[in-house]
User: What shape does this take?
Amino acid sequence: MATISTGRVVGKWQGAWLQVEGRWTWYRRHWVSTLYSTGLQPVLFLAAMGLGFGSQVRPGTVTGGLSYLQYIAPALLAAGAAQQAVGESSYPVLSGFKWQKEYLAVTATPVSPGQVFGGHLIWSALRLTLAGAIYAFVALFFGAWTGPGVLLVILAGTVTGLACTAPMAALAARTFDEGQRFGLIFRFVVMPMTLFSGTFFPIAQLPAAIRWLAWLSPLWHGTQLARGVSIGGVGGWAMLGHLAVLAGLFAAGWVLAHRAFYRRLLV
Amino acid sequence: MTTVEARAGLLLRILPPGLYAGRARMLVERSIMVSRASWLLFVSGAVEPFLYLLAFQLGFGKLVTEVAGPDGRPMSYVAFVAPALLATSAMNGAVFESTYNLFFKLRYAKLYDAMLATPIGPLDVALGEIGWAMTRGGIYAVAFLAIAAAMGLLTSWWALLMVPAALLVGVTFSAIGMALVTFLRSTAQFDYIQLILTPMFLFATTFYPLSVYPEPLQWVVRCLPLYHAIELMRGLATGLLSGGMLINLAYLLILGALGLWASTRRIAKLLLT
Assistant: This one.
């Protein structure tokens, strides 16, 4: 029996873009209050660690002969992206299901749960790129960049962020309590990841026994990617490897999140 | 009302009636019962400064081996950072407890509305919340000191005084945080809290000595409350005491008293009118 729809069915991409449009409307009104997480936080870290702490560090073999500021500038972009991505895919996603319930509202229209998740991903990618661009621009005045690779660093940041966004959204979509586990994720995953992923010092300084933990973290791969495109020192095959790990994490997160969104939104 | 009158002390006679009922410990009891449900998150607060110490021992300490200590003589970098990390974690713990948690209790859970319907006053609420933040901060401080001592980062018996110092830092920041959070209207504004905390964490001589800054900026840094907390901790950890530490102490005490006064007034205003 054929059903005749009276509503206008949206296309595959259009449904996701409608989400992005909704977010953009919100963002236009609230962008000031999110300025801190968008670009300002990594800039502050660059000023304190790059200029302040860096004033105590002598350029040497560890920093590849560069000043400490130039050494950590690309890595801080990746670290900022990872933090922003985890932040935006934790409470905000749970809120879409549970508190504000905008996901439920949207799926009451012809937009599918997959499109809701797709919209979240596209919006995340846009925000990450914007944050990266703002950071790259400000860091320019610090003298943090050594060459024109900056534009690629922004992309590396977005890729790193997306590799964190998808798995985190999958976790948030499977969270039914008040989100207590997010606090644990921030403490036991994000914070150690930021400290021990080669952002501030090479992971070669870690004891071999815990070095493998850094290899697991998406941020280490992102950091290597960001350094590779801006100051070099990372081989071509290694770069491909890092990119593949990030893409793999993103894909795995996507599959899990996609399934979780459908399970939670299709009643 | 008979039980309240029976316990009436000096405070009750000084304060305006209804502000204080001598039951602040009921709030602490409630917080203990709540935190039993999320004990892992509670414990993780002690793990965080340890991870920082580890990062500085393994990584940062190899980039910078020595910095100028409180008396100008060089000291090991990890020992330089450790007391600052304790001050920062006391601040962070207190602020998170008294802002995010308080905000949800105040605006969404309507917890205090319920409490004030019983014989409990706004000052009980303020004191109880601060008392709980102190307990929590004290436990973390003891754990941190034990780890730092085991790593050989403490060189003086004065370091034992870092526990009461951490409690004072906790009280000051939770009182101030509580007063400020009553002005917030939505969760989106939590970014403003981070906007104050992170720069303070990064620039209040946590990671490098004050002498790095040019002269005018040094005076800006000297105004930050966290700077005074760090100075106090660093002096105690190294045993290099100076008269300036009395100023640091006074600064924190005055700020804490101001915060307590303001938060009581604000909670009373929000809930009783």
